[in-house]
Amino acid sequence: MASERIPAEILRRFAGRLLQAAGLQEDKARDVADVLVEGDLLGHDTHGLALLAPYVRELRSGSMTASGAPAVISDRGAALCWDGRRLPGPWLVREGMRVLEPRARQYGSATLVIRRSHHIACLAAYLLRAAEQGLVMVLASSDPDHGSVAPFGGTRGVFTPNPIAAGIPTSGSPFLIDISASLVTNGMSSRMHKAGRQFDYACLQDAQGQPTTDPAVLAADPPGTILPLGGTDAGHKGFALAVLIEALTGGLAAHGRADPAEGWGATVFLSLYDPEAFGGLAGFTRQTDWLGDACRANPPRPGGAPVRMPGDRGVARKREQERDGVLLHPSIAPMLDACAHEYGLEFPGD
Q1: Residue 222, in any domain of the structure
Q2: Cα-based torsion angle of the residue sequence 153, 146, 268, 316 in order, rounded to the nearest 10 degrees
Q3: Which one-letter DSSP state was computed for residue 305?
Q4: Which of 146, 216, 220, 246 is deepest in the core (most CB within 10 A)?
Q5: DSSP of 161-210, one letter per residue?
Q6: At how many degrees (to 10) do helices 8-21 and 26-41 cross?
């Protein structure tokens, strides 16, 4: 079962049924299922269907809200703030995109920040939809409940990996940027730890500040931490990026690490920009097309692979898996099969 390719639509239907069986409203289940499968299609398999069983557990425990709408904290047309009420993050982000798109067309740009969202899954999974509509999208997230990443020079966790992503239109395949302010993510560290594996380079440090390849340090007492992007040499850059993301998320939402923890979740920054309101979409894509052509044609290092633009591999992988079926990571199918049986369902269904 682990090596079987499964059509994406079958996975979407299965995920939607399982989420509904766990109590999630149908429209929300549909968005969450679509975002999780999109993560796997793009190759982000720690933030795709690997999250489905944990999301179901959060629904069952009541830590994820199953119905209702966010509360509007502020609405000034091009700037909004919501209280997500711990509703599913993928649905909140998708709903935010639906709300922001006409406003971005009207005002040129529109921004939403969401406090008290649940986890929002793979950031790259939202980008194609916006870029294919000719919009630039910027998305960032932090989780005020956790602190697994140390500031540069420190040894105690303050930040989460704090991802930031951007979708950038071109006349062809858009650029899809999805990076973190840390060297690795919590999801990948957990997967490596469970498998008894170590990283190929020292992307973590133990509680005494010694660099290590061993993800087990994150579960030690006292715990180690993930190093910021740039590591022990240039980690001031990742540290600064993490601070920026905290300001865009927790700062603008006026809710974050200064408040009591409420459980696994997210504070979210989402902004859409319409190039037509600036220099025009045609002029925008003329510039991005030139940039893509210049980078891809750049002579590679001796023995190295050709230069890829951010998102090239993900988009190619998505096309291949939409055609041939999704190849799930070996750890995912058994987890989903066990979760499905709790609700009288079969994985992957039909």
Answers
A1: no
A2: 80
A3: P
A4: 246
A5: --EEEEEE--SSSPEEEEEESBSS-HHHHHHHHHTT---SS--EE-TTS-
A6: 140
Q: Which residues of the chain have pLDDT under 70?
A: 1-3
Cβ-in-10-Å burial (0-12, 13-18, 19+) of 213 comes to: middle
Six-digit token string for 247: 């300001």
The pLDDT value given to residue 4: 85
Please check whether residue 326 lies inside any domain of the structure: yes
With beta carbons less than 8 A apart as the criterion, state whether 78 and 44 touch.
no
Burial (CB count <10 Å: 0-12, 13-18, 19+), residue 196 = exposed
In total, how many domains does the chain have?
A: 1
Is this prediction's pTM over 0.90? yes
For the CA atoms of 108, 27, 61, 147, the dihedral, rounded to the nearest 10 degrees, stands at -20
Write the CATH number for 63.
3.30.1370.60
> Where in the sequence is the domain holding 53, given as residue range(s)?
5-183+227-276+310-341
Q: Say what the pLDDT of residue 3 is.
A: 63
What pLDDT shows up at residue 1? 41
Residue among 69, 98, 100, 72 at smallest CA distance from 86: 69
Q: Is residue 208 part of a domain?
A: no
Q: Is residue 15 part of a domain?
A: yes
